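Structure tokens please, single chain.
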Amino acid sequence: MRIIVLAILFVVATTNINAQNVIPQEVKVGDILEIGRPDAPQYKHIDFPRANFIIKKGGIANYKRVEGNKVVVTAIKEKKDGTVEVKIKKTDGKRFFNSHPVVKADLKNALESGELSAL
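Here you go.
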């Protein structure tokens, strides 16, 4: 009986460990993603600049226009706390809000929340 319980616990533990590592390993530099609609009124996991910084750089702070944009992953970095951070830029070569060429995103959380989706 004890062996069966230990075997079940082992299977559950290894499944959880493997499930945590699935999403970040699928995305690599050069992959194309699409920006989706955020769950909240603002994007939480894509680090878009605040409106005042966009305006200071001469851009237009319209966050609704970024939805549906196709982006390419330019860099992937694993932080000390284990999160995977990616830098993304638009595939058409234009800037986000006509002011920022590249933005950062927390890959795992952005994919899970639907702010980013793989094509």
